[in-house]
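Lecture notes, part 5. Sequence design as translation. It can be helpful to think of inverse folding as translation between two languages: the language of shapes and the language of residues. The source text, in structure tokens, appears below.
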């Protein structure tokens, strides 16, 4: 461990529950972020700062002016540029000793298997139910960690799904997507920038806790956060006897997640 490495991660190394062993686990970790918006931006910044060795960024969008109040990785002069390209440059400037891989496209059943192949943890920063069910199905099939996050008005949810350990998946506790009219997007209802920043940071924290083995149990917890009251509460779940996990990659390729969520 050279002086630069020690100085960069000194405050983490001082934590007895992390130490050198935990930092080495972070440096060896591979996390894929799907969606570089309000959730993905803070998650990517904190994962890069923590020293996650390989970070993948997936998003086919360009930066728009109305993104800037909550997607604080970007600036006004970058409006119109690729989100993943700008994010890569800034994350590498923050931490040049990690690897950043970009995918300037949206995740689909046709590309998820190839894009996510080398990653151990998938962090979902999207705002589409179809993407959530797709990533959950992929992680369930491949025994990978799925870190879920969502926001609505002043509330947010976070969960780490570890199907191989507890048999709980997103689909098993949310088997039926809500009607689109029941859950308007932030473009329809609006949102304050603080909330996705908090939830995205919590997602990154859940990923780091898993990487460093800081969670005392593999039991599932869904974390609920209310920004108006600053209250947090948790709910648990047990495996669903009705849930049928995907059996093969063909199950993912042949399923129409957009129709399912429409």
């Amino acid at each position: 461990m050279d002086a630069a490495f020690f100085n960069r991660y000194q405050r983490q190394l001082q934590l007895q529950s992390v130490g050198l062993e935990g930092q080495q686990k972070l440096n060896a970790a591979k996390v894929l972020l799907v969606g570089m918006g309000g959730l993905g931006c803070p998650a990517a910044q904190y994962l890069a700062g923590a020293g996650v060795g390989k970070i993948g960024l997936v998003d086919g969008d360009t930066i728009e002016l109305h993104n800037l109040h909550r997607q604080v990785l970007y600036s006004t002069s970058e409006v119109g540029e690729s989100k993943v390209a700008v994010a890569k440059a800034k994350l590498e400037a923050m931490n040049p000793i990690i690897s950043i891989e970009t995918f300037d496209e949206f995740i689909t059943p046709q590309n998820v298997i190839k894009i996510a192949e080398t990653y151990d943890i998938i962090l979902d920063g999207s705002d589409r139910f179809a993407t959530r069910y797709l990533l959950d199905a992929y992680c369930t099939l491949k025994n990978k960690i799925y870190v879920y996050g969502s926001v609505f008005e002043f509330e947010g949810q976070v969960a780490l799904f570890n199907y191989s350990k507890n048999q709980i998946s997103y689909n098993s506790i949310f088997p039926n997507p809500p009607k689109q009219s029941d859950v308007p997007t932030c473009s329809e209802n609006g949102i304050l920038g603080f909330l996705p920043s908090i939830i995205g940071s919590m997602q990154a924290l859940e990923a780091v806790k898993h990487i460093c083995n800081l969670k005392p149990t593999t039991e599932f917890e869904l974390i609920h956060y209310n920004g108006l009251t600053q209250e947090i509460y948790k709910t648990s779940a047990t495996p669903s006897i009705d849930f049928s996990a995907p059996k093969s990659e063909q199950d993912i390729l042949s399923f129409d997640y957009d129709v399912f969520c429409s």
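The translated text above is only one of many valid answers, since several sequences can fold into similar shapes. The beta strands are 30-34, 54-58, 99-103, 121-124, 145-152, 155-161, 222-226, 231-235.
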